[in-house]
Design a protein that fits this description.
The protein has a single domain, classed as Glutaredoxin, CATH 3.40.30.10. Helix content is 31%, strand content 21%. The protein contains three helices and four strands. α1 links the parallel β1 and β2.
């Protein structure tokens, strides 16, 4: 039989701080976009782990997105804010993610 968690015990599961929610990333891309493929590789290179959750959106799947982005892809939103456009490095991505984490932004 398990005893209820003890809030005064630092090793009790209920007293441990919960990990922060992952920062939502949205990568706007399109089929056949070589820059989009390069940016996906940079995201992988950044080794973001559990600090964020990535969702990829094909802009051509929605006429509103086509109107919004036109030919300007890839675009990366971090926590609901456009952070990086067209070309960036894994280092720039890590810097923007750290900034979003320090500001506590969540979408």
């Amino acid at each position: 039989m398990n005893a209820p968690p003890d809030p005064m015990n630092p090793w009790s599961s209920s007293s441990r701080p919960k990990p922060p929610e992952p920062v939502p990333l949205v990568l706007y891309t399109r089929q056949g976009c070589h820059l989009c493929e390069e940016m996906k590789a940079e995201i992988a290179r950044a080794e973001l782990g559990e600090r964020c959750s990535l969702r990829e959106v094909d802009v051509d799947s929605d006429p509103r997105l086509v109107e919004r982005f036109g030919r300007s892809v890839p675009v990366l939103e971090i926590a609901g804010r456009v952070a990086l456009k067209v070309r960036w490095t894994s280092r720039e991505l890590a810097r923007e993610l750290d900034r979003a984490l320090s500001e506590g932004r969540r979408a």
